[in-house]
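Posting this for the archive.
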Amino acid sequence: MTKLPMKSRLVQILSEQKEAWDYELITKLLAEYGKSGDYWKWMARFWMAELSCGGIFSIVDVAADDGKRFAKGKVLYRYSLTDFGQARVNELLGA
């Protein structure tokens, strides 16, 4: 079975979970694709910022990282899928 592009899988994961913190999405995504390290972690965060700016993801909460997730003082985001984002999932991924 062919895997979705990682960015598309992020959208699908959030669609399944309804809401999730960025680090939860990243942990699941990287485990599924056998990726690790700072490059992939920060790439996934970049994709989430793009998806938020594009109206697919909505930020529903923010918190300061205590140093356990990315780096002390970094902002953590909790996302949900927008109605537009859910429509795109349904259209493109057949959900």
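The longest strand covers residues 57-64. The helical segments are 6-17, 22-33, 38-53, 83-93.
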